[in-house]
């Protein structure tokens, strides 16, 4: 709840979740498409690296800056919070396993390793999808009336500051890719004006070029 008593707008997290669903959903196909093709494994490996970092940052932000507030204020069923933590741990185990294999695979394009990573992502998707849905349906409505605007802003800042400056416009492309016009406008309001202009001038083109090469 903001100082004025207005609920905090948490919808930007839904846009972030769309990136995770979409990009992790595609990863198995992308890993397989690079089998024994080292030029392609470099491209897919860099993308997978970026998305693993994005997911990891998203979860650590919630673990450190959001879930403790919700527990402290006892606004949600402790069992739900325990389930959220358990889902994070399960997803993080998969993230760590993928991170361990990714550098060598990026360099080698080894088909068996790529298949193993693809299978691991597929095995984790049901947990990730269920977790994101539960967070959106059960947590966010409570979050919007429980945390202050500055607490919510700290979470967004944590996520943004983890993204290298040179990659922020491309990530912005990912976040707004499936947004409706109204959602895009709403999200862009929290983006600083120079970044909005840079996205218009160069970022969108860079995002489109990159994703076209990645998705094949
Ligand atoms: Fe989330």
Automatic annotation (TrEMBL):
Q: Give a Pfam family name.
A: Hemerythrin
- Domain Hemerythrin-like: start-end pairs: 10-142
Where is the organism placed in the taxonomic lineage, from the top?
A: Bacteria, Bacillati, Actinomycetota, Actinomycetes, Kitasatosporales
Protein's UniProt name: Hemerythrin domain-containing protein
**InterPro entries in the record:** Hemerythrin-like (IPR012312)
Organism this protein belongs to: Streptacidiphilus cavernicola
């Amino acid at each position: 709840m903001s100082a004025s008593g207005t609920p905090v707008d948490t919808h930007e997290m839904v846009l972030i979740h769309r990136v995770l669903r979409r990009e992790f959903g595609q990863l198995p196909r992308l890993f397989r498409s690079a089998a024994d093709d080292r030029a392609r494994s470099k491209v897919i490996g860099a993308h997978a690296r970026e998305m693993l970092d994005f997911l990891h940052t998203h979860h650590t932000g919630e673990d450190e800056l959001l879930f403790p507030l919700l527990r402290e204020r006892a606004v949600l069923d402790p069992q739900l919070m325990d389930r959220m933590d358990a889902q994070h741990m399960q997803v993080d185990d998969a993230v760590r396993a993928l991170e361990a294999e990714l550098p060598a695979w990026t360099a080698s394009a080894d088909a068996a390793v790529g298949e193993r990573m693809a299978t691991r992502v597929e095995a984790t998707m049901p947990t990730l999808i269920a977790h994101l849905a539960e967070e959106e349906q059960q947590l966010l409505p409570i979050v919007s009336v429980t945390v202050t605007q500055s607490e919510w802003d700290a979470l967004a800042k944590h996520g943004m500051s983890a993204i290298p400056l040179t990659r922020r416009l491309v990530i912005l492309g990912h976040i707004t890719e499936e947004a409706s016009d109204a959602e895009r406008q709403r999200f862009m309001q929290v983006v600083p004006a120079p970044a909005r202009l840079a996205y218009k001038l160069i970022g969108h083109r860079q995002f489109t070029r990159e994703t076209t090469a990645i998705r094949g």
